[in-house]
Amino acid sequence: MLSARHAAARAETRAFLETKTKHYMVMGLVALDVLAILADVFIALMACDMRLEDEKEGTWVGVTRGALHVTAAVLSGVFLVELGVMIWLGGLGEFFEEWFYCFDAFVIVTSFVIDVVAHGTLEEIGSLIIVLRLWRVVKIVDELGVSAEERTQEMDRKLAVLERRVVKLEKR
To answer: Membrane-spanning regions, if any (predicted)?
Structure first.
């Protein structure tokens, strides 16, 4: 049985997660993550093209790619926390009913594990996860769809109010 405090916290969290602010935050973080991924790929290609084989600390390639990897790990952690909160709110059964959430959870957990655990050769093999992480672009589209749906519902409510007013005015 949930305590009143726990139930109130869940209700407040659920209310926040349904706001435009949350959707815009997620879109911004996803966009930042995708940009970091693309920058890492671009820098790796540039380094290869320039035959910069030394990516150790101190070189601009090593420093930049290291910072991008830290950024990716932090963002993966943020998305992992979001995933945990979503599961806490809806429960495992409700959360995993939709394939989109299942696949997104797989991408988030796999990305986090690779970002935190993988080093050296394993990290290079794990870089194949980039393809999956670009899946987050689809998450942006999903967030945009949710935002549009919320605006449509708000407009429907306003339309219903206006229709009732018109009917009252016509009766007069």
So the answer is: 24-47, 67-89, 101-122
Q: How far apart are CA 110 and CA 96, in angstroms?
A: 16
**Distance, CA of 172 to CA of 161 (rounded, Å):** 17
- Cα–Cα separations (whole angstroms), residue 172 to 140, 158, 162, 164: 48, 21, 15, 13
DSSP 134: T
Question: Rounded to an integer, what distance in angstroms lies between the CA atom of residue 172 and that of residue 166?
Answer: 10
pLDDT at residue 51 tops 80 = no
Query: Do residues 139 and 26 lie in contact, with contact meaning Cβ atoms separated by under 8 Å?
Result: yes
| Measured distance CA(23)–CA(110) in Å, rounded | 23
Give the separation between CA 131 and CA 33, rounded to whole angstroms.
Answer: 13
Q: 21-25, 56-60, 125-129 — which one is most confidently predicted on average?
A: 21-25
And the tokens for 112? Answer: 């986090």
SS3 127: coil
CB contact at 8 A, 2 and 108 = no
Structure-block tokens of residue 80: 């992992």
